[in-house]
Amino acid sequence: MWIEAAGRHGKVGPWKHCFARHVGMTAKTETLPFRPAPTGFEGSGLDDAVRDLITSYHDLNTTLIDELDSEPSPLEFMRYVCRNRPFVVRKGAEDWKARKLWNAEYLCRVMKDEMVNVAITPHGNADSIIELEDDDLLFVKPHETHEPFTHVLRSIQSQETSPLSSSPTPTRYAQTQNDNLRHEYSPLFADVPKDIPFAKIALEKSPDAINFWLGNSHSTTALHKDNYENIYVQILGNKHFTLLPPVEAACVNEKAVLAATYIPRDSVPSSRASTPPGLTESSASSPVADLTEPQQHEEALKDLVVCVDEPEDSVPFATWDPDEPKKRATPFSALSRALRVTLNEGDMLYLPALWYHKVTQSTSPSSSHLSCAVNYWYDLDFSGSFWPLSTFSRGIGLLSTLPQNEGKEELDRERFEDEHLGEHVKMKAVMGMGVDEGACMGGLEWQGMMEEIEDTLMRGVEGTRVVGEGDPEPEYEDCWEGFGYAVEVMHP
Ligand SMILES: O=C(O)CCC(=O)C(=O)O
């Protein structure tokens, strides 16, 4: 038997000498002084533990992405999944039909005037943080509308080719992440594989969603993370990924941000007509009389205003941007070591679950001034220790950036000033369910509740306890399958 007082990175401390001296000296054990086991951290506070987590990760992992020149075998892929590390296969999708066929003319010929969902924003900032003049933040979602595919594609192209000085046009991004390639864009699905063979074999599942993305260099996807193993393939143009590992949760300054949506000014319901002070999002074009319906539609899209959602809701979202590292930084942000990779046409990226990613794009005449990609989302395996440990380290990271007790106060306020005020509230649910289970409560509502419960657990709030693997109430029976915890929240 050997005892190691392992310090950071497994260094053996002076304790082994102690141990050697006392082996066999049972008569003297009562005189042994009590000593706490060494933590291995370089300080004794929560923030030291978080700092150690991030720096140890970077000591042990490179910030260069592994580049493979052919698809990995299922076993090789599984090694990356187990280590939760990304890789890129250069030209991994070069043989796909989509690579050979897709260009502006082909896409229009196949999709014709099928109505497709498109996200519209004034500055290409769908699902992102905007800052108000008084430093308050909003999480703003795009205006979503349906338009004929050919119109969407031509608008994306013409915005890309028009001179910067010309009048501002709304930015369109076809980006519904709802399995759209097997539904809305099904005429194009024949041009890509139905599955990624190495992922299907290794993960023993088929993708939950296969998504089609069409945009231009005006759109940016803000830093966020997903509960999916993601195989992302660039077909036309380029994508520029900035990636942060899950252990950097404490760097990204996640906050519960008030949710809002871009709405054409002339469609804002009168009850919501006043936008929050300080918003300068509108291009403030005045309505023009005698326009045809499509012209009116186009004019309306040039005048989007931000409306706070009703009922009010907040979304936990990263507010730090690795490209503006001084702004909204936490004490840990300077420890972040972003991994950056550009996907060229035909490249395939494995983006592991829970990695934060920010994505920008670029185009060229040879890509028809389009950036077009396809991705395969495989549900994260919530069993094992990866999910609970990641959730734990995120929670600790959040706690250590809060002033003492702020978490508890916040939770007390939010929870007990809402509709449950004064009641004994029993919420039974579980962290870590997949998309399907969410359906029984409505995805967003369910997602919001999960976040809340997760926060509750992480903050160890008084009056909150895990009551174990629960017996479902009859009406929740369908939701319970595969769930792990029940949480009981009691009025303090
Ligand atoms: O391509 C993009 O703009 C974002 C991609 C993304 O967020 C994802 O695949 O999860």
Descriptors for this entry?
26% helix; alpha+beta; RmlC-like_jellyroll; Jelly Rolls; Cupin_8; binds 2-oxoglutaric acid; 3 domains; 21 strands; 492 residues; disordered C terminus; Cupin-like domain-domain-containing protein
Number of helical regions:
14
CATH H-level name of the largest domain... which superfamily? Jelly Rolls
Strand content: 15-25%
Top CATH class of the largest domain: Mainly Beta
Poorly predicted tracts of residues: 1-23, 280-288, 416-446, 463-492
Strand order of the biggest β-sheet: 1-2-16-10-18-8
Present as ligands are: 2-oxoglutaric acid
Number of strands: 21
Question: In the CATH classification, which architecture of the largest domain applies?
Answer: Sandwich
Helix percentage range: 25-40%
The dominant shape is: globular
Kindly report the average pLDDT value: 81
Rg over CA atoms, rounded to whole Å, is 26 Å
Largest sheet: 6 strands, mixed
Structural class: alpha+beta
What is the domain tally? 3
What gap, in angstroms, lies between the N and C termini? 49 Å
Q: Can you walk me through this structure?
A:
With 492 residues, this protein is an alpha+beta fold. It folds into three domains: 38 residues, no CATH class; 307 residues, Jelly Rolls (Sandwich); 78 residues, no CATH class. The chain contains 14 helices and 21 strands. A six-stranded mixed beta sheet has the order 1-2-16-10-18-8, with no helix packed on it. Strands 4, 5, 12, 13 and 14 form a five-stranded mixed beta sheet that branches. Strand 1, helix 3 and strand 2 form a beta-alpha-beta unit. 2-oxoglutaric acid binds next to strand 10, strand 17 and strand 18.
